[in-house]
């Protein structure tokens, strides 16, 4: 059974709670959770997994959550090779207060890790979401799973279950 590394940044705890739910849905026995603020040491932590989930909320004008900033700077400087790694992204946004950059941080992560050779999976339909713009939309879909626990908390669990079904097909071998 392949191991899954779930790395997340979570200022208010929302993304952390979703990371824990994902581990439960995917099977806690196969998932290792890493809080980027407390547990991330270097990219070797990530590179030991074939399958990775990265969770990041969007702040300000489309920026990644604080716990991801330094690692992304290191990623640019160290240029580790993520070839052969499969990554899926998830992240929190607020379409009412930040609809002009809804979950755009996922687009930042997508570009950074794709440039390092990773295969990114787990795109999610934009249907049912309200927002003005998102840097996380490519080819008409989000590059990962967006959720809005502030304005659409009632939709999060159903979206998580749908996304895990996608991951089980694309991301996790039977």
From TrEMBL:
Ranges of residues in domain Flavodoxin-like: 4-168
Record's keyword annotation contains tRNA processing: no
InterPro entries in the cross-refs: Flavodoxin (IPR050619), Flavodoxin/NO_synth (IPR008254), Flavodoxin_CS (IPR001226), Flavodoxin_lc (IPR010086), Flavoprotein-like_sf (IPR029039)
TM annotation in the entry: none
Keywords: Electron transport, Flavoprotein, FMN, Transport
Keyword Flavoprotein: yes
Domain of life: Bacteria
Cofactor: FMN
Cross-referenced SUPFAM superfamilies: Flavoproteins
Annotated function: Low-potential electron donor to a number of redox enzymes.
Similarity comment: family membership: Belongs to the flavodoxin family.
Protein name, entry field: Flavodoxin
